[in-house]
Predict the structure.
Amino acid sequence: MKKFLFLVVMLAMFATHGAVAQDQEGYKRVNLQDEFADNAFTFFTQAPILLSGDKTASNAMTIGWGSMGNYLGYKRPTVTVYVAPGRYTYQFMERYPRFTIMEFDNPDVARYMGSHSGRDGDKAAALGLHVAYTPSGTPYYTEAKTVIECEIITSFHQDESNFRNETPRNFYKNFEAGIHAIYIGEVIGAWKK
Ligand SMILES: Cc1cc2nc3c(=O)[nH]c(=O)nc-3n(C[C@H](O)[C@H](O)[C@H](O)COP(=O)(O)O)c2cc1C
């Protein structure tokens, strides 16, 4: 019995460790469906940061496109992001199961993350950002004011045969980074400062 209780306490401590760390950094967990007041059409135009990886490796970049809604259930909020194969982040999105989307007060973060590649060096270190991990082990930066953690449900690798009108045909004519892959992520955690 004693052994069992010890195990339960250890498991509880392990499960809450990340959450406690996030509380200490000034985050409050939010339920996006009840508490997210941002405009989903303009959220991504504020240039949030997409970070993909795990405790061993990660890379982040600025994104300007994305969608928020539900998929496979009314109580399954999802965030969809679009990542071009030419981005270093693409290799991470292909390899790792989860990603975070973050908002920052400092506009230098989006400027730098959107104009440099992780292939040439650690962008987070260059910006002085600190990596931490959610209870699921997904990386985020403690300087972010909003962190949305997603687990990828499915992804789509489009080619020209998928295009249905002239908008993508015209866009991709002169776009060197390749046709964006589409990742639908189920929201598994969200925090705001
Ligand atoms: C405002 C802004 C929005 C961007 N949005 C996207 C996007 O939605 N998808 C994408 O693939 N690249 C987007 N980019 C480009 C990448 O952020 C940029 O190429 C970055 O340097 C890639 O870094 P990486 O090679 O480390 O992945 C955006 C860039 C900026 C500045």
Observations:
- The longest strand covers residues 146-157.
- Residues 2-24 form the longest helix (23 residues).
- Strands lie at 28-29, 49-53, 58-62, 66-70, 77-83, 98-103, 131-133, 139-141, 146-157, 181-192.
